[in-house]
Amino acid sequence: MKRILLALIALSWIATSLAQSTNDEPYNPEAPESTIKIPDREIYVNGTDEPSRMSWDVAKSVCACKGDGWRLPTIGELQTIYQYRDMFGNFSREYYWALELNKKSGRYYNLKFTNGKIADEESDERNKVRCVWVPTK
Asked: Which of 32, 43, 59, 120 could bond to 102 as cystine, CB 3.0-4.6 Å?
């Protein structure tokens, strides 16, 4: 009976570890729940959007308030997330904020998840937000 119980505990632990690991990448026990790892990068994407569209300043604050390592994705990270959007799922067909400022226009970058188009807008415009988490080294 004791062996059966130990075997069930071991199988449960293995199944949990496999379920939390994506793309044959090692499981990171520090990664927040409901995040998905971007393949070949040490960055995790929140499994869901924030509940409403928001300005860039509010979006940046919302991500930072989640804790250490949370932030808006860079435009390059958004492009990678767009490439793997089917893996992450549940993206709206709208623009999502990026972290960077377009220095030429003085507006913040965003990316549309219907076609991957990069644009920029004033910070008070309202766009969708999907925060990312990067482990602190």
From this structure: 120
